[in-house]
Amino acid sequence: MELEVRHLRAICAIAETGSLTRAAAALHQTQPGLSAQLRRIETMLGGTLFERGQNGVVPTSFGEVVLARAQAVLPTLDDLMNTAAVAPRKAGAERFRLGSAPAPLLGGLISAVREVHPGADVSSRGHHTPQPLLDDVAGGRLEAVIVGDSPGYELPASPGVVLRPIVTEPVFAIVPAAHWLADREEVELADLLEQDWAVPRPEDRTPEYWARVALGVGRRMRIRYEAEGRLLVEVVRHGHAVSLVQPTFDEVPGIAVRPIVGDPIHFRHVLAWHRDGPMAATGERIACLVTQSYEEARDRSPVYRRWRESRRALSR
């Protein structure tokens, strides 16, 4: 783990509010997620930054030193990033810096931008949570991003940022291929909740949404492993846990993807761009092309295709 600007912002927010709860709200994070992030920052820096007291949290002596450096550095970094964001437009160069949270849509977004803006300089980067990406769009550091949210955890509005929904999809289960649940065409949520779980890190509010759905049926998730991407897949493949994935996830050896009976969990993909940026006039056209790209990914998935066919049959 390397120290990032968002870590400095988190340290400053905690110090300014004197509370992890209030700082998490200001940063659009969960309190457990911010607490976990703070522990990782302290481990990386090699010391405790804050002490808890009856009236909240206060910086330690070491924390005061780090905080002073962060408060000195952040204004300069903000000025540098804002200058870099404006300079290419003044020079007339068309540049698209794209971002994406984990989703099957980044490739489609790159293709769409290249089709609508031929000759543009296109680059991209990823992040495991949406809020830093939206902050970069609002600050002019990215031109467009693919992000997502869950019911009850909708993305907050950011100044000048257009949020264009692409699709809301069901969330499927991922289980070891040798597990008895893999023999089912669809799995019951109650059966999944009897298993150990692997989930993304708590800065991403998705696991909080999953846990809320579980509590809605009177159950609790047995979270044993924190992992993402390939690491999460490996934990499941080896039979240690179950988890949830987007329905366009490709089944790979050792892994089974299964719909959940009743479709109790959903995820919404969103394309975001700055209303005054280079996509001001072309955002809707690009969004339509990204939607087409998603539909192609959806049609390539045998599990997703069978799910759609079964839902159409039920609606007749």
UniProtKB/TrEMBL annotation:
Pfam families in the record: HTH_1 (PF00126), LysR_substrate (PF03466)
Keyword Oxidoreductase: no
Location of the HTH lysR-type domain: 1-60
Keywords: DNA-binding, Transcription, Transcription regulation
InterPro entries (alphabetical): LysR_HTH_N, LysR_subst-bd, WH-like_DNA-bd_sf, WH_DNA-bd_sf
Record bears the keyword DNA-binding: yes
Protein family: Belongs to the LysR transcriptional regulatory family.
PANTHER family per UniProt: SMALL NEUTRAL PROTEASE REGULATORY PROTEIN, TRANSCRIPTIONAL DUAL REGULATOR HCAR-RELATED
Protein name: LysR family transcriptional regulator
